[in-house]
Design goal:
The chain has 103 residues and is mainly alpha-helical. The protein has one domain. Helices cover 63% and strands 0% of the residues. The protein contains five helices and no strands. The termini are far apart. Keywords: Nucleotidyltransferase, RNA-directed DNA polymerase, Transferase. This is RNA-directed DNA polymerase from mobile element jockey. It comes from Plakobranchus ocellatus. GO terms for molecular function: RNA-directed DNA polymerase activity.
Length: 103
């Protein structure tokens, strides 16, 4: 996927879509039952920024702020928000089941 995600001839919107379809589901596998502490949230946000920097070919040594990278990619942080939404959906399924013993 590196050749696709870092290819300058492919529009950034298409590369972001590929990231969302092929990379993020692997990263978020089983996230419905994760306990997200502040430390884990920071690591998830750093991972999301790392993906964007790689797609835009911005080296980690460059003095670019995260806000500038997000503006350049025309994107907002969404990974943690998506995980929280999936956790809420999972909790709804568990509550509708009627008992709290899910295993």
């Amino acid at each position: 996927m590196k050749t696709i995600l870092t290819n300058k001839h492919i529009p950034i919107e298409t590369r972001k879509r590929a990231l969302q379809c092929y990379i993020e589901p692997v990263l978020m596998y089983g996230c419905e039952v994760w306990t997200i502490s502040k430390q884990i949230q920071n690591k998830l946000e750093a991972t999301e920024m790392w993906f964007l920097r790689r797609m835009l070919r911005i080296p980690w040594t460059a003095k670019e702020t995260n806000e500038r990278v997000l503006n350049e990619a025309n994107k907002r942080r969404s990974l943690v928000r998506t995980i929280r939404k999936r956790q809420a959906t999972f909790l709804g399924h568990v509550m509708r089941r009627g008992n709290w013993n899910i295993w």
